[in-house]
Amino acid sequence: QPQRPAPQRPAQQRQVQANPAPLPPGEQPPAAVIGIVDVPEVQRHSTAFNQVREEIEKRRQKLNEDLQREQARWREEQQALANQRGSLSPEELRSKERDLQERVTDAQRIFRDRSRDIEQAAQAALQEIERALATVIRQVAASRKVNLVLPRPLVIYNEPPFDLSPEVSAQLNKILKSVKIAPEEPTPAASRPAQGQQPQKRN
Hints:
This protein has 203 residues and is mostly helical. The chain contains six helices and two strands, in the order αβαααβαα. The longest helix has 54 residues, at 90-143.
């Protein structure tokens, strides 16, 4: 049977037009009325931002202190176990070493979880501040008839009237004085009583 010729694609499908037809006239952008916001400066003056920073730093410091104290205790137990090698049978020694390793592994997991929870709490609190800041910037810009707001790092020089930062800072502190930070959950490592103390009875 005679072979059918392969179908040919239309020329417009094979080639992209080098000079596409112009679009109909669109709406012209308004004249730019520029304002500038120094976000780091606003954060430095924000009571909510400083509250979050101080609380998160306090939690990180507490976590680091707990970790160092726990690591010191591990070293003491490892040394005590090494001193008992001569008086323990191989089975007893392996059992104590396994028990210590399991407790160390479990404690390390707890510290990782605490660190993750701290960072998640910080992220959630900072996101709330960012949302409030975005709202305030829009409010201040609208009150000043500004339709284009630039961050400070993009600007080499500007006259002071362009800077919206002081007004933004004042308004942000009015609407957001503090942020509720998720509380830390109690952990076995944190609730373990110190030597010489008895655990409190719960009703």
